[in-house]
Amino acid sequence: MLSRIKSFHTQRFCTTRFGDSMSNFKKSETGLPQGIVINPLLLNTFIGDLPGISSFNGLTNAACFEDDLVVWFCAFKEEHFELNTVLN
């Protein structure tokens, strides 16, 4: 069963289409592919507790809904540098 799940999440390639143009294929090394039924369970297993622990000076927040995660940060201009450092 684990090898079957792993096969869905490794050696994936993606491309982007905009109008009549299409990008070259690139290997997708992060994230979960769309449309696989088990993805919400896998995502919640790995990041389900993130909204409860994501607090940096009380300014960082996170919320999960089904298989989506959003993280936001409220800061003054001088804190933008610190945020970029943490994200990179």
UniProtKB/TrEMBL annotation:
Domain of life of the organism encoding this protein: Eukaryota
Keywords, comma-separated and alphabetical: Nucleotidyltransferase, RNA-directed DNA polymerase, Transferase
Domain Reverse transcriptase: 1-88
Sample GO molecular function, one term: RNA-directed DNA polymerase activity
Name under which the protein is recorded: Putative RNA-directed DNA polymerase from transposon X-element
Gene name of the record: X975_11037
